[in-house]
Design brief:
Helix content is about 35%, strand content about 20%. By secondary structure, the protein is an alpha+beta fold.
Length: about 425
């Protein structure tokens, strides 16, 4: 890094612009064509190509908001402090943001934006937040952020490498989004037309394929309560699955806790077996569902309800049926009867589920599992690429690894 220039944001910038929010009492202020954003609009996607809302020229004239010219850096100085974006269009900003104008002939703006996202700068910003209610950083603090900048050709090479990985991440996100939408469409089609585009018949849970029947869940599955309040935790204890671990029909290890096996009351049976289905029974995630795979067998359920399908029901099909729109709507109607969203065992036992032949259940589950596996794989790829990006960002921005040492082929990050 000896040949890199040590400087600051204040020295690199050619100017700064603050922002504001036009009054909402003037409806005409919010019917214009000028894109306007808050810090909420800044995300993992670095480049901004549209606005969060749109304001009029009159709104800009009669409020504190400013229009930041395109190809500038947008930096969050209050809410979401430290978020960074590059506006590829002229846009107005609110009071939580600052526009940093850059001489694009001497600096690669994406290099500067990437560098502002490294851990050391983000930690510096976090340490300098001030304020009684909304904590933020001052203009002086923003200007004093230290930067290390190589020659312009090297800046561009670093940006090329990081952008290549970023594009690969975005490609996986598109796969996740499109496959999630496909799976949703498949679920609707399969649970209303079956595998053979059947005519429909109306039932307690809406239209289902003509050859299918419905059944109370309690007639085809054993339903029991989970453990309830977590007993004493232990690092080497039994994994306990709670509502926060249930994500879109799958179990997430994020935030997983473990509890002492000998602290579980013998009178309860909260242990999960492969093929069990867990249903969240209270709180913000009421009605969410996940099936227990073999790897989670032997764990316990928290406050949630445990559904153990009998031999006539495919467990994966049962989970998908409980996630289908009509059943989810039923759960919502049942849980909203109380002050706090809540489902009990009796309500779950009397929930109707669609029930085709076991053979068709197996085939429906296979189709939906295939779509879910594609989503899971893309999410794993995205996570791996995000780890790669963070590593490269640190290594390249601190010159621990030089661009000449890296020869990333497109296949490596696809």
């Amino acid at each position: 890094m000896s040949d890199w220039q040590k400087t600051t944001v204040g020295k690199v910038a050619t100017g700064f612009l603050s922002g504001g929010t036009p009054t909402t009492s003037r409806a005409d202020f919010w019917k214009g064509e000028i894109p306007w954003i808050t810090s909420k609009w800044l995300s993992d996607k670095l480049e901004l190509t549209t606005g969060e809302k749109f304001v009029s020229e009159e709104a800009v004239k009669k409020s504190a908001t400013k229009i930041v010219p395109k190809d500038s850096i947008i930096f969050a100085t209050r809410v979401g402090v430290g978020k960074v974006g590059i506006n590829r269009i002229d846009l107005a900003i609110n009071q939580d943001l600052a526009g940093v104008l850059i001489d694009n002939e001497n600096y690669d703006i994406k290099f500067l934006a990437y560098q502002l996202g490294i851990d050391s700068i983000q930690q510096y910003v976090a340490m300098n937040k001030r304020g009684a209610t909304i904590k933020g950083i001052t203009r002086d603090c923003l200007e004093e952020i230290r930067l290390n900048i190589p020659s312009l050709p090297e800046q561009k090479k670093i940006v090329h490498i990081l952008s290549m990985v970023q594009r690969a991440i975005e490609a996986q996100e598109r796969i996740i989004q499109s496959t999630t939408e496909l799976k949703k469409a498949l679920m609707h089609k399969l649970f209303t037309e079956g595998l053979h585009n059947e005519p429909q018949k109306h039932t307690e849970i809406g239209p289902i394929p003509e050859s299918w029947e419905t059944s109370y869940l309690g007639e085809v599955a054993e339903i029991r309560y989970g453990l309830g309040q977590p007993p004493q935790q232990a690092a080497d204890g039994v994994p306990m699955i709670r509502a926060t671990n249930i994500k879109r029909g799958r179990i997430s290890e994020h935030g997983l806790i473990r509890i002492k096996r000998n602290a579980i009351p013998e009178s309860r049976n909260p242990y999960l077996r492969a093929g069990d289905v867990v249903v969240v029974r209270s709180g913000a995630y009421t009605g969410d569902v996940a099936m227990i795979t073999e790897e989670w067998a032997g764990s316990v359920a928290g406050y949630d309800l445990i559904v153990s399908p009998g031999n006539s029901v495919n467990s994966a099909f049962c989970a998908y049926a409980l996630l289908s729109a009509p059943v989810q709507q039923h759960f919502k109607g049942q849980s909203n009867r109380a002050a706090q969203a809540h489902l009990n065992r009796q309500q779950l036992q009397t929930t109707h589920i669609p029930l085709p032949s076991r053979n068709e259940q197996d085939r429906v589950a296979e189709v939906l599992d295939a779509a879910q596996m594609k989503i899971d794989y893309a999410e794993q790829r995205r996570a791996a690429l995000q780890d790669l990006f963070r590593t490269l960002l640190h290594e390249l921005m601190t010159a621990k690894t030089g661009v000449h040492e890296l020869e990333l082929e497109k296949e490596e990050v696809a």
